[in-house]
Amino acid sequence: MNLFTSVFDLFFPPKCIYCGEFLALGDRPLICRRCLDLIPISQLRCGKCGGVITYNNGMPECLSCKTAGRYFDGVFAPATYNGNVRLAILKYKFSAQTYMAKPLSYFTAGGLKKLGVKADLVLSVPPDPKRRTKRGFDYTGQLAKYVASELKIPFRSDWLKKTKSTPAQSRLTKAERLKNIKGSFALTSKANVAGLSILLVDDIFTTGATTSEVSKLLKKKGAKYVFVATLAKR
Ligand SMILES: [Zn+2]
Ligand SMILES: [Zn+2]
């Protein structure tokens, strides 16, 4: 803890971003002890594909097997998108509270480290051209930045772009999602993914339609391996 942090904390006592509980001075990363235990980081692997086992209402499931036929090679989501996790993500997205990016990506980065996921590069699902200007910041890019710094892997925020605006995925069915997102991403002229293992960060994992579409593009351009990491699964 540095001097600035301790003085700052005296006037603005830090609160847990998930439950709002006040934290001890200098306690980082803005997550209380109780919430730290609430989100389990699994180390179990799927017997069939070697993918990461996560829990859906207490039941183990392999997202990689569940979403077989997608273009990515594996998926990790440390939490289920409900309760305080959902509220914290929504608050971050719609209020543009950038300080939340670090504590929100804490479980994702920690889980990836425990699992030993290796990659040459971190990329993030780029924001929709229309919605980005409305909210003013690339919230997924901010998450990816912290995941990358925790894992000590370079992050490129300007390699991927969304080329056309599409309706929000949340109101669509699985089939509509795939159709909606098709062909809407591109690599910029700076990008060269040939032969690379890529960690692709997105905020929430739902059907995997978006991350699969980006993975398809990355594979077409020569990426060797694409592993998807999100904050939570729906
Ligand atoms: Zn808490
Ligand atoms: Zn599996």
Can you put this structure into words, describing what you see?
- This protein is 37% helix and 16% strand.
- It is built from 9 helices and 11 strands.
- The chain has helices spanning 3-11, 33-38, 63-66, 83-95, 101-115, 129-135, 139-151, 174-181, 209-220; strands at residues 53-56, 59-62, 74-76, 79-80, 121-124, 160-162, 185-187, 197-201, 204-205, 225-229, 232-233.
- Strands 3-10-8-5 form a 4-stranded parallel β-sheet. A 3-stranded parallel β-sheet has the order 4-11-9, with no helix packed on it.
- Strand 1 (53-56) and strand 2 form a beta hairpin.
- The radius of gyration is 18 Å and the shape is globular.
- The protein starts with a helix and ends with a strand.
- The chain binds zinc ion (2 copies).
- Residues 46, 48-49, 51, 62, 64-65 line the site of one zinc ion.
- Residues 16, 18-19, 21, 32, 34-35 line the site of one zinc ion.
Number of strands: 11
Low-pLDDT residue spans: none
| Percentage of residues in DSSP E strands | 15-25%
CATH topology: Rossmann fold
Describe the protein's topology.
Layout: H1 3-11, H2 33-38, E1 53-56, E2 59-62, H3 63-66, E3 74-76, E4 79-80, H4 83-95, H5 101-115, E5 121-124, H6 129-135, H7 139-151, E6 160-162, H8 174-181, E7 185-187, E8 197-201, E9 204-205, H9 209-220, E10 225-229, E11 232-233
Parallel strand pairs: 3-10, 4-11, 5-8, 8-10, 9-11
Antiparallel strand pairs: 1-2, 6-7
Helix pairs in contact: 5-7
One zinc ion (ZN) binds at residues 46, 48-49, 51, 62, 64-65.
